[in-house]
Amino acid sequence: MSRTPRAHRALALAAALAVTAAATPAIAEPAPAGDPSTYIVTLAERPLATYDGGVAGIAATKPGKGRKVDTTSPDAKRYRERLTSRHDQVAASVGATASGHYSVVSNGFTAELTPAQAVRLHTTAGVVSVVPDRLHKALDDRNSSDFLGLSGEGGLWSALGGTAEAGKGIVVGVIDTGIWPENPSFAGPELGDEPPTQADPYRPYRSGTTTVMRKADGSTFTGTCQTGQEFTADLCNQKLVSARYFGKGWLAGNDPAALGEYVSPRDGGGHGSHTAGTAAGNHGVAASVNGIGHGTISGVAPGAAIAVYKALWNDQGTTTDILAAIDQAVADGVDVINYSVGGQSESPVLDPINIAFLHAAAAGVFVAAAGGNSGPSASTLDNTMPWVTTVAATTIAPYLGDVRLGDGTLLHGASSTVTAPYGPHPLAVATSVKAGAATDDDASQCAAGSLDPAKAAGKIIYCVRGVTPRVDKSAEVKRAGGVGMILGNPSDQDTLGDAHTVPSVHINHPDTGTLTAYAATQGATATLLPATSGGPSYPQVAAFSSRGPSTTNQADLLKPDISAPGVAILAAVSPPGNQGKDFDFYSGTSMATPHIAGLAALYLGEHPTMSPSSIKSAMMTTAYDTKTPDLHAQGAGHVDPARMLRPGLVYDATYADWLGYVEGLGIDTQTGVAPIATSNLNYPSIAVGRLFGTRTITRRVTALTPGVYHATLDLPGFKTKVTPSTLVFKTAGETKEFAVRIEMTAKTGSTTTPGTLTWTSGDTTVRSPLVVTPLSAQAPAEVNGTGTDGSVTFDVVPGVDKFPLAAYGPVSADHVPGTVSPSEIWGKEIAVQVPEDAKALAFHLTPGSDQEVGALVFSEGEHGREFEAWVTRWEDFRTVLARPKARTYIMVVVTLGNTDTPYSTQVNLVTAQSVGTLRAEPRKGKVTPGVAFPVTATWTGAGERRGTGYIEYPNGTGTVVTIN
Question: Where are the transmembrane segments (predicted)?
Fold first, then answer.
């Protein structure tokens, strides 16, 4: 893909590298769009965290290695004033007002913009991106701290000096739904006003309304206990050192009271309390659920302090609020950020939150981010940038329970509510006891109000998993007078010991078929039993945990990075959102992520100046495989806390490396940093998403433990070589480079191949996962030709010896004229319905006068409109999407002039049914893998309008042919 002069243009064109569906476009009549929307505008100048000087009279504010950004220095204040002043100027240039400013880890502002104003800013010099605000959602041994080897005499806590010392001097920032401060997981001594002494250097204290805490790296954390609804300043303490809330974006369109929310740092739902407690909650807290005791629990870093940044409300939040929280967290001086949040799809590289985390990591803040709960399908991850640590969720020792049917059949499952034999009781399938008005679907899933008390009373009810939340099903059984529940998976999935309101056991498919067949017999009964064996092996990656490969990173970066416990995790919650419970079992990558955040705090407690990328490397290269290893599911494997403090070697990366990586994706960062091949980012894993023939990958490692390290590489079906294969480090801190050559052979398969690269020195092993996908073709994403009758020739390098070509189109739709006036500030819309078999979708916009026009392209996603591309002079008034998703696409046309502006649009939709004169030669013939051969695209009778065609290769990818 050719590089482009604007970052956002590159983003739009990046979509042309992938492709999926279409037919004849259904064009809607031009119509007014909606109201002005909230946008985040990012400017080119660096924020405080990475500003390295250059402005007269303002020295660099970028922190030194191992230090945190200082927002209180005179230079920081002057630079911040400069940035916010520029924000106001840029907003005012299009008649808008900056309603929020970001200057610590992001240089930008929030503003309410019409489409016309958004287009104007998009074409303004010094503006990097203009992105619509969007919603992000919380990603929701028997004891995870025991399973991780933290507890006990030989555990990691003991090695670190005990639980009080584990993470001491470190502040974990939690960006989530807030906190329930009364929970004992967050109890602590009151904040006094006396500064600490040498005997207790990290003790936080209060100076006025500010909490001050000296940290292990020598810098100072400054926070506050922001008051609000049912939240007073005295709720903070030496454990909970700060609590703030950010709701400007979400509160503008929602009624918090109607949703059980508090306009304060107080947690209404429980998600934030759970993640905070898991990461750094107190040790030895007695936890019970529905009257059943489950021993004591602990956060991973019980000695660390917690700072809360509430940016999620009712388990969701806007980009604007989350950005404000990140900015403040880094300004306060947190060491670690836990981000158990995700979008509805993989975020683009220049998403404002990605950029904010880039600068946070550059300022030395470790960011643990949830991978998502959309598994087990491939390419469902979010939070995939290399500067964050992306976390997958795994199982731990399950809470087991059995079901004994009346005929003696024993079915194994999971339960945390059956502590003694329960039954026998009559057994009924939910549909057999449904209420008269309920549908079979609702009753089968035990939806609220779907069961008839006259039929369900006194029975154990079988409910099917799905749609209705699992714990709500047992609540419905209880409402209807049922005395127990058996929850069944309709297909092979994980089983969970949730905190149900009646004794319950969760069983898997195909045992569900056995149960339903028996339940249909006369006098069927069931007994629920506690169990100690018969459960699945662990750890396994949870079925819900999102998988790679990352499409944003073009599969050249292995994501997720690491996996950690995320199934049936017991931790603090908020009683109002959890049926009055103080503790509950939650599952999700949200629960796995704070385990990694807590482990990062433990690492920093021992090595306070270690960089975020080095900590990630230490975790990844010491991980072990899960029971069903899949690199796109587990990443490097399951985290091993006992080994992570002794990694031997680390793969470090810098801010410049990350910028070079982004440049390598074809995005102009406007920093002047040279691009690097994306597979060459210095990373603890190696991924090649499109191997063609031979590729040489370079890496550099830094020794934490000196020694002689020998390389071993295992990648079946490929010829490989590591140069040099031995690295000698005489002192800690030495850095050396090596290269890995990977070559396809006759034994190379056509599918993705996993492998490992391991450096060994005595008992120290440094293992990196390696994943390679052979490429069946190397070809341009788009070619251009001219003429009613014409041709264009380009080279294609095949990866296989059989290489048939298919051609579709060209499609040359009519020009649709229109006029848009300056008073139509929301523009005019042209909608296109794209079907499943689409190959390419091209939007063309032609100005009809010297007045400038522009357009934005959106698509209708599952959760509302999603921004797709710009169509302005920066993009030559066109954009092409290859293999677009099956959905409705909308182009919003606006004028940038002062008078009525004529224009015309042309939308070309190429589908599998687009039969035309486009031909590709040779259609068949002998080709040699790895050797380029010429492909000629020819067409006749294309007419004077722009045409769009598509040439498809054996793997489904292809080249868009644009005829001008």
Answer: none
Distance CA 844, CA 875 (A): 10
Residue 523 belongs to domain spanning = 400-530
The answer on 743 and 866 residing in a single domain is no
What 3-state DSSP class applies to 408?
Answer: coil
**598 Cβ contact partners less than 8 Å away, ≥ 6 residues apart:** 167, 172, 278, 279, 280, 299, 300, 301, 304
Q: Which of 140, 176, 452, 494 is catalytic?
A: 176
- Residue 316 sits in the same domain as residue 280: yes
Residue 399 has pLDDT above 90, yes or no: no
- pLDDT at 222 exceeding the cut of 50: yes
- Catalytic-residue membership of 271: yes
Averaged pLDDT of the chain: 90
Q: Nearest CA to 311 among 474, 177, 126, 190?
A: 177
Quickly tell me which residue has 């499409």 as its tokens: 551
Determine whether 613 is an active site residue: no
User: For residue 215, which of 295, 307, 90, 95 has the smallest C-alpha distance?
Assistant: 307
Strands 958-963 and 782-785: parallel
Res 925 pLDDT > 70:
no
Contact between 495 and 504 (Cβ < 8 Å): no
Tokens of 821: 């006036």
Q: How many domains does the chain have?
A: 5
Top mean pLDDT of 206-210, 397-401, 544-548 is at 206-210
Q: What token pair was written down for 681? A: 């980012």
Q: 670 and 709: one domain?
A: yes
Taking the C-alpha atoms of 684, 689, 691 and 695 in order, what is their torsion angle to the nearest 10 degrees? -30
Q: In what order do the strands lie in the sheet with 777-778?
A: 777-778, 790-798, 933-939, 919-921
The answer to whether 814 touches 11, Cβ cutoff 8 Å, is: no
- Select which of 37, 504, 563, 590 is catalytic: 590
**867, part of any domain:** yes
Query: Rounded to whole angstroms, how far apart are CA atoms 247 and 263?
Result: 8
Instruction: Please compute the mean of the pLDDT values over residues 689-716 and round it to a whole number.
Output: 95
Beta carbons within 8 Å of 13's beta carbon, 6+ residues apart? 1, 4, 666, 781, 879, 880
Q: Is the peptide bond before 922 cis (omega within 30 degrees of 0)?
A: yes
Confidence of residue 210 (pLDDT cuts 50, 70, 90): very high
Residue appearing with tokens 């899960």: 626
**Residue 137 falls inside a structural domain:** no
Identify the active-site residue in 271, 359, 412, 506: 271
Taking the C-alpha atoms of residue 213 and residue 446, their distance in angstroms, rounded to an integer, is: 50
- Same-domain pairing of 264 and 372: yes
Contact 278, 167 (CB under 8 A): no
Long-range contacts of 653-656, Cβ-Cβ distance < 8 Å, separation of 24 or more: 653/386, 653/387, 653/611, 653/613, 653/681, 653/682, 653/683, 654/362, 654/613, 655/50, 655/358, 655/361, 655/362
pTM assigned to the model: 0.82
- DSSP class of 353: H
| Residue 77 DSSP class | H
First to last CA, the chain: 20
Q: Strand pairing partners for 404?
A: 410, 527
- Provide the 3-class DSSP secondary structure of residue 623: coil
